[in-house]
Amino acid sequence: MSRGFLFIVLALLLVPAASAHEVRPAWLQISETQVAGTYDLVWKQPVLADRRLKIDPVLPASCETMNLGPGEMTGSALIVRSRIICGSEGLEGQTITIAGLERTMVDVFVEIVSSGGDTHTLILKPQRASFVMEAGAGAKSGTGFLSYFRLGVEHLLTGFDHILFVIGLVFLVRMPMKLVKVVTSFTVAHSLTLGLSTWGLVSLSQGAVEAVIALSILFLAVELVRAGRAEDSLLLRYPWAITFVFGLLHGFGFAAALTEIGLPQGTAALALLLFNLGVEAGQLIIVALVLAGLFVIQRLPVATSGGLRHAPAYLIGTLAAFWFLERTLSLFSG
Q1: Which of 123, 202, 207, 276 has its Cα between 20 and 30 A from that of 252?
Q2: What residue ranges in the chain does DSSP mark as E strands?
Q3: CA distance 221 to 41
Q4: Would you give the distance in Å from CA 308 to the centre of its chain?
Q5: Residues of the chain with pLDDT under 70
Q6: Using alpha carbons only, how large is the chain's radius of gyration in Å?
Q7: Over the stretch 231-257, which tens digit does the pLDDT of each residue have?
Q8: Residue 269: exposed, middle, or buried by beta-carbon count in 10 A (0-12, 13-18, 19+)?
């Protein structure tokens, strides 16, 4: 059937990333001190399979760097703190580059803090690995604040397990109004745990959360098969309740990226709201793309064979089972 054909195309796009854990963003904070031309630098970079990514901030040659103690491992990141001395002119007008970023899929969240406490944020990407330190950048507290919204969108669109879950919901719930209610339930739930986890009110093992998220996708695949066979399905009987529970789990997964970079002091609530709205926007983009693809495919004379009826469920289940085994084994091997 046409739904199965569309999912095969989508799965082929997701398979290259099936074996990879979600990549966390790196974080660079440059804080101006009360001493002219002197800055405190915090560099937090992802660690995958106990190996740090080979990306490092490169400062102007006129700056002297003094490490403030050894690096600190947090399980998923390496944190290095330094004191930067750049002379009386400081970093104004100077270019700062993240070396090696162009060879990765990692984003770098940059926060510049003035001596007065004002902040300016921006995101560096593999195709844009440097920025110029502008005069008074720290005072521009609002210019880069929407970076949190963008980070939320990108986190959803690069989180292949979350994408697969949303796609599965679209294939399972065919009535538009019912789909809206189910997606809303999912959104409310992940918003709750995203906030609770980011504020430190609830804390769970991230590795265990990722494994259970994969298990939730596997459960969704089983429900897809049962629904395709016209069998009674728990998810079809209680769609909002079950999706709400799954949303709670996925919220902890969403919180991981935001926890890595932290929330800006004084404006944490707004940053959290923007990040969550970004996640929701990314989710709606996926729903819209799948529905648009179904609309087009159903009007083309392709893939009408009944043999593809259960293809979406089997492909979802295969990927989810692989993720679950991989993440569970990593818990015991770590």
Answers
A1: 123
A2: 26-32, 38-48, 51-52, 56-58, 64-67, 72-73, 77-85, 95-99, 108-113, 119-124, 130-132
A3: 46
A4: 31
A5: 1-24, 48-50, 69, 74-76, 135-145, 230-231, 233-234, 256-268, 300-310, 333-334
A6: 22
A7: 676 677 777 788 888 888 888 877 766
A8: exposed
